[in-house]
Amino acid sequence: MDVAARLIALREARGYTTNRLANLAGVSQSFVRDIERRAKRPTVETLSLLCDALGVSLRDFFDEPGPPPGEDALLRRIRRLTPRQQEALLHFLDALER
């Protein structure tokens, strides 16, 4: 997991500057910048403070979105189709999108 990229994404999604996030978390702005530049790695305690300031749990911070439920089952079923059936399915899906 790219902690810096995730931190930047969450911070920007909330419209926070590095200064605002640092103030809310009780850490220095230079430390937040160093984390985002990958110059420093936060401790779990510091990351917890940053997550609290961003309104997310540590679990949510590290939870990378996966495929929607049922997508794997759908792909398995598509793979079992013959090439001709897959082509027919594509035509059907194209028609649905129109």
UniProtKB/TrEMBL annotation:
Residues 7-61 form the HTH cro/C1-type domain. SUPFAM superfamilies: lambda repressor-like DNA-binding domains. It comes from the Bacteria. The keyword DNA-binding applies. GO terms for cellular component: cytosol. InterPro entries: Cro/C1-type_HTH (IPR001387), Lambda_DNA-bd_dom_sf (IPR010982), TransReg_Diox_bact_type (IPR050807). PROSITE patterns: HTH_CROC1. It holds the Pfam family HTH_3. Keywords: DNA-binding. One of its GO terms (molecular function) is DNA binding. This is Helix-turn-helix domain-containing protein. It comes from Candidatus Flavonifractor intestinipullorum. The lineage of its organism: Bacteria, Bacillati, Bacillota, Clostridia, Eubacteriales.
